[in-house]
Amino acid sequence: MADYNHRVIEPKWQQYWKENETFKASVDTSKPKFYALDMFPYPSGAGLHVGHPLGYIASDIVSRFKRNKGFNVLHPMGFDAFGLPAEQYAIQTGQHPAITTKENISRYKEQLENIGFAFDWDKEVQTCDPSYYKWTQWIFMQIFNSWYDYDASKARHIDELVAIFEKDGNANINAACDDDTPDFSTEEWKGMSADDQQLMLLKYRLTYLSETAVNWCPQLGTVLSNDEVKDGFSERGGFPVVRKNMQQWSMRITAYAERLLQGLESIDWSEPLKEMQRNWIGKSIGAELSFEVENSDLAIEVFTTRIDTIFGVTFMCVAPESDYAAQLTTPEQKEAVEAYVAQAATRSERDRMSDVKTISGVFTGSYAINSYNGEKIPVWVGDYVLAGYGTGAVMAVPCGDQRDYDFAKHFDLPIVPVIKDADISEQADPTKDGTMINSGFLDGLSCNDAITKAIEFAEEKGIGKGKINYRIRDAIFARQRYWGEPVPVYFKGNIPHLVDEADLPIILPEIDKYLPTEDGDPPLGRAENFTYTPNGETEAYPLELSTMPGWAGSSWYWYRYMDAHNNNDFIDKDVQAYWENVDLYIGGSEHATGHLLYSRFWNKILFDLGHVNQEEPFKKLINQGMIQGRSNFVYRVKGKNKFVSKGLKKDYDTTPMHVDVSLCYNDELNLDGFKNWRPDLADAEFILEDGKYICGWEVEKMSKSKYNVVNPDDIIERYGADTLRLYEMFLGPLEQFKPWNTNGIDGVKKFLGKLWRLFHNGNGEFEVSDAAPSKEELKSLHKTIKKAGEDIDRYSFNTSVSTFMICVNELSALKSNNRAILSDLLVVISPYAPHITEELWSLLGHETSIIDAAYPTYNEEYLKEDDIEYPVMVNGKMRTKIQVAADLSKEEVQEVALANETVQKWLEGKTPKKVIVVPKKIVNLVV
RNA sequence: GCGGAUGUGGCGAAAUUGGUAGACGCACUAGACUUAGGAUCUAGCGCCUCAGGGCAUGGGGGUUCGAGUCCCUCCAUCCGCACCA
């Protein structure tokens, strides 16, 4: 073999790894473990583009590096295979989503294999596989059988709750439950029918049924997720979407709000990502307060973070959707309020959000009593109050809250200042520093002291208490769709029961059409005999017709990889104890408040119930930046089939037009290719500059319609997988968003050619020397070993590629072909460019894969300089450079510097006040 | 509005702890070898200046012998949340 030929080498080694099961990982307690995980892809019909593998390449590099370092590495891959596009395709074509999914997966696998990843395919999981979703259903059952004990701060088995109810009723427990849960005694519990007991328990279970609003599209006959709805219309088809209440499964993630927040402190995630989760959880510390209503038994409950401003409350405001609105309206105001509520209901969520400037509201006719000063305050309905947050009612303090202020100004309600020196002539002042005025017994206190005092008062009078509120809502756990996991629940009457564990999995049934039934049931309603007969009974009961949401299968998959073929358990306890959790997780930040939050939630439940030994699933998380498309443009002269090169376009009236990026090389248009691209361009004419047609470009999202999609297969065919891998890393920092730009790829390809030539003589024959390595060679190598190792520790892959280039350049300059040097160098480069290094490694005569080679350690001895050059500065300005031996002390360097002629001249006989010698860097004399 | 990031040559970018800013690569220029190759090798490549030297990390100010890095302030771009009481 002569020249470096990736087309021969790469398939050869991919085949070798496959045959030898090189990447198979199993428990080995003699070695430390390392678990590298990628967010598994949804296999879409479009296949992979060059942006997808970015994170996989990074995790692959770390995996291979860790393996060379002696770790037992688990690096699996699988597919998040339930999802909407396959179902959509099924609705249109009638093809079963399983077939579409299977085809897409095999395409994805082929593409992934071409890149040479060190995946252990034996551990592959597919969420749509019954042997996988059996355990998703099993986990659902564990969650169903749990309740959350706030006193113990953990989930416990529902049987323990039943035992408590039997002993003490529910008076003494502090559990997460529905808001409308009544108090009951032991006797009352025992007096309930079995069904009523079940309905009561459902109010405590960590997954429960409740009425929730969904986006219902009557024309499509289906429920849509929030991101499928745009401005009140379905994204697909543009049909109107309405809010509709449906009985659905939810997961009580709110019970875990505090622990999800606290847990962030213990994990190594990026600050922006943690911040996103914190915002999503939305903790706010305040107080809950109840206001009596004049001439009524009702009380209005509010949540406030500023109870110190209680004396500044001049009105109350309730959300139009809240029950308060109807309850508090007096007969005189009935007509006005009903009209307002009806009008508010027609405005879509989005209208209300985008139109925050318009102030609207109406008086209910009722008055509340401020228990702190006995004052009568009017109760209004206003759509700036949200039904979904807090209690759906607020105490309005116009002096301290801008929305209350605007409302008060608009309806001419009083504004009472309660903080000294706050200027509220133009707007509210929400700041919390100052002393209280007009505030009765709070006068003279600071805001913080006033909060404490006001809460004490409320507690004494029994009208309120300190409270922590969270913004996070329970997660809806049902989709009225076909292509998802069936929920392992059947109904006796309206009471849900779990199927027997032995009957798992509940297989997704075949149906004739992937659409809802005529009477509006989900697609599963079409299945024949989709029923369940409990053990020992003869009657068949209907099964739940909703399927699980997309996030179900992805909320535990990292555990299944550890023990993918286990038929007896979702994971073997010992296997889990060995692999623990994920050491490095790489994926996009778009999952910040979805997958990553749900996964932490489920993991905590599994932890509480004793199924896993780690409370957090992902120790270290990196968000790889998206690779954007780099679109190319040609400029058509208006009204003509003539195109003008970018540099000359200012002289013409032109319209830009996307051109396929594969027709451009370094932004120069391939004219013949362009003419053949589309029939209407066959007789296109060009106005060239310097004989070339130069295209314009812009960074956009990679998409088919913009003709900027780059397929990794094309890059691999032309440049090779090793070049692709190195180049994606070389493109810039992993976390950064960056456009794909093939312009620089030649440099990386050249580097691999140079590496190849280090091992070959001028005739292209393999030739290495067995001579002892020279000092320069050792220095170059050890510098590289050190830098590459440090770079991986801080996930700086782009700088490592530079380091390799420098090393290869240095060795070429030294005409080095030393076996020992090159052998170590190969191991260092192998995580990045596995194929070429395997080939050269085997040419060196090694019989095992380079992935099992020991990573070389560097020796400081070789890194020492003979002489060090110190710039000598006087008052920070550079004067001269001195050469000194590397092992001189600071004082000795200082002496040499002071003795230097140029420096002497500058100092003009003066003695510097201060001399700063920075080791191996610089000498600075301060006069 | 709130929160978070980012800002360095023609371009992608380095600079890990405050210590010679621009490593490495692309593009560009010149040359060598060839006798067409999108090959390889060598050299040059921030700006100004005749030079000594000066100016440069979004703008302005500060701390320091010394600032891309720390502090204050303003500007621009991107992302997330958004009437959250």
Beginning-to-end CA distance, first to last residue: 66 Å
Q: Give me the count of strands.
A: 35
Q: How does the overall form come out from the CA principal axes?
A: globular
Number of helices: 30
Poorly predicted runs are none
- Report the sheet-strand fraction: 15-25%
Would you mind describing this structure in some detail?
The protein has 927 residues and is of the alpha+beta class. It has 30 helices and 35 strands. Helix 2 (53-68) links the parallel strand 1 and strand 2 (72-74). Helix 22 (721-730) packs across helix 23 and helix 24 runs parallel beside helix 26 (819-829). The longest helix is centred in the C-terminal third of the chain and has 19 residues, at 775-793. The two termini are 66 Å apart. The mean pLDDT is 89. The structure holds one RNA strand of 85 nucleotides.
